[in-house]
Amino acid sequence: MTDHTLTVAGVAVDTRHWIGGERVASAETFTDLSPIDGSTLGEISRGTATEAAAAVVAAKAAFPGWAATPAAERARILHAVADGVEKRLEDLAIVETTDNGALLRSHRRGVMPRVAHNFRFFADWLLRLGHDDFDTRGHTNHVSWDPAGPCVLITPWNAPLMLATWKVAPALAAGNTVVLKPAEWSPLTASLLADIAAEAGLPAGVLNIVQGYGAEVGSALVSHPDVRRISFTGSVPTAKHIAASAAANLTPVSLELGGKSPLLVFADADLDLAVDLAVEQYDNAGQVCLAATRILVEESVAEEFTSRFTEKAALLRQGDPRDESTDIGPGIHARQLEKIDGFVQRAVAAGARAVIGGHRGDGLYYAPTLLTDVAQDSEIVQEEVFGPVLTLQTFTSEEEAVRLANDTRFGLAATLATGDRERAARVTAQLVAGTVWVNCFFVRDLQAPFGGSRHSGVGREGGTWSFDFYCDLKNTVTAPKGWRDHG
Ligand code: NAD
C-alpha cells in the first residue's frame, strides 16, 4: 500500500490523477469524506491548471491514433471496459455507496449494471450510425461522423459513475479522447474506471481523469483552447460559468442541469399509483435531477391523496445505505444539508406547513419532507432543493394544472397520473419538459433523447443525439467525372 492508495471495504483506490496512461500526483490534496458517518476516506490529488493542461496535452496526443482506430475495434475495447465494470461490480458498488451515500442495493442492481450498459450501448450504436448516401444531379453525397477531438467531461456527485460514463462512452465510441473531471465530493469510482479502462486495453491518453475542485482544475479545463467539446452535468450557476468560458473559444457545450419537475395528479388517476409515484421522489434522498418535487393534485382528491401519501411515506426506512432494507440514505455533505434545511426553514417562515418532516435527522440525514401552503412564486416552489423535500399544491382545472406545471424557469421532466388517455395527450402536448412520464417514472432508455428545456439544459444525450454532439458531421460530395479509371 502506497501513500497514494486509500482502501474502502477492502477495495484499493488510487487517489491520483490518470493522465497519459500514468498516475500523476499533485502537491496539494483535498479530503474525501463518507456521508454515511462523516469519516475521512482519504486525501485526493487536488488538480490545478498544470494538471488540466497536461491532461489536455495527453488527450490531444492520443487523438489521432484513437480517431484512426477502426470503429469495430473501438467498439471491441468499449465492450471490454463493460466486461471489466461487470467483473468489478461489487467493488464499484460499495465504493460508490461509501463515497456518496446512495443505496448499495441500487448500485448493485441498477446503477452499476447501467454503467456497463452505457459502454455496450454506445459501442453498438456507433456501428449502426449512418446516413444513406444520396444523389444530387449525379453527384454522390456521403455523410460521415468524424470525431471532434479532445472532450472535457464534467460531472456531479449524485450518480457519479453512471453520469460520467453516459458521457465517456459515446465520446470514446465516436473516436474522441477524453478528460473527465469527477465531482470533488465523490471522486473515487472514476479512479477505479481508469484501472478498468487500462486493463481493457484502452490506449494511454484516450481517457484521462483529473481530480479536484471545479473552480480550480475544472475552470482551467473548460477554458482550454484545444478542447473540442465540453459536456457538463451539474447546476445552473456552474453551467453559466462553463458556457461563458466555452464561448471564448467557441467550444460546443452540452449542458444537463437542474430541475423542479412537476407530478400532476388528476382526480381520474389511480390514486395508489399516484401515491407510489410521489413517494418514489424521495429516492436517492431526493438528490435526483429528474425528481418530480412539485406535486400538483386536483383539489377534489387532495385530502385523500395526502393522507395515503403520508401513510406510505411513513413506511420508508432511513438509515445506513449499505443496509439492504434502507430506502433513504444520507445527503452527500454537510453543506448540502445546510442548504436543504435553509430552503425548508425559509419556506416554513413564509407560511408553509410541514405535513411530514421539515427537519434534520442525525448526521447527514434529512427527514423526508412534504410542504403544503406554498405560494407559486415562493422560493421553495421555484428553486431546486436537491434533497428529500416535496411541495404539494392543488388545482381545480386542467388549464390551471398545466399553467402551474410550466411556471418555473426549468423544463427537465414532468410526470402525469391520469386514467384518461385523451387528457394525457392534451396535457403532454402543452408541458415544457425534456421527458414526460405518464403513469410511470424513471423509465429510461439510452435510445431516447434526454435533456432539458429552458434552464434545465442545452442539447440532448442518448442514441444518435450523443453522436450528433460528439462528432463533426461531414458531407462529402463526389462528382461522377474526373476519374482516371473511367478514362
Ligand atoms: P455543481 O454545478 O456544483 O458541480 C458539478 C461539477 O462541476 C463538479 O464536478 C464541479 O467540480 C464542477 N465545477 C464547479 N465549478 C466549476 C467551474 N467553474 N468550471 C468547471 N467545472 C466546475 O453541481 P453539483 O452540486 O455537483 O450537482 C448537482 C446539480 O447537478 C443539481 O443541480 C442537479 O439537478 C444537477 N444534475 C443534473 C442532471 C441532468 O442530467 N440534468 C443529472 C444529475 C445532476
UniProtKB/TrEMBL annotation:
Pfam family membership, one: Aldedh
Entry annotation: catalytic residues: E256
Oxidoreductase in keyword set: yes
PROSITE patterns (alphabetical): ALDEHYDE_DEHYDR_CYS (PS00070), ALDEHYDE_DEHYDR_GLU (PS00687), CNMP_BINDING_3 (PS50042)
Domain Cyclic nucleotide-binding, residue spans: 340-429
Cell membrane recorded as keyword: no
UniProtKB keywords: Oxidoreductase
Family to which the UniProt record says this protein belongs: Belongs to the aldehyde dehydrogenase family.
PANTHER family with a match to the protein in the record: ALDEHYDE DEHYDROGENASE-RELATED
Entry protein name: Aldehyde dehydrogenase
Organism: Streptomyces macrolidinus
Lineage: Bacteria, Bacillati, Actinomycetota, Actinomycetes, Kitasatosporales
